[in-house]
Predict the structure.
Amino acid sequence: MTRTIVLSVLQIASALGLITFILLQHRGTGLGGAFGGSGNIYRSKRGVEQILFRGTIALAVLFVAISLTSVLLRS
């Protein structure tokens, strides 16, 4: 019972983090577009953009792992 509660809390926390990271990334404009900068030039991700990108991937993997673990423990 305690494991399922802990997994549920971790799953909710990872979901909220994933939602936050996704919303911080503007589609096609980069982080500079969020503050009035121009994002018309193709360039590689640097700094905060790269952290958000990698963090999004990490949180997605964590969310899926927690979900699978939760399903396997409940059955």
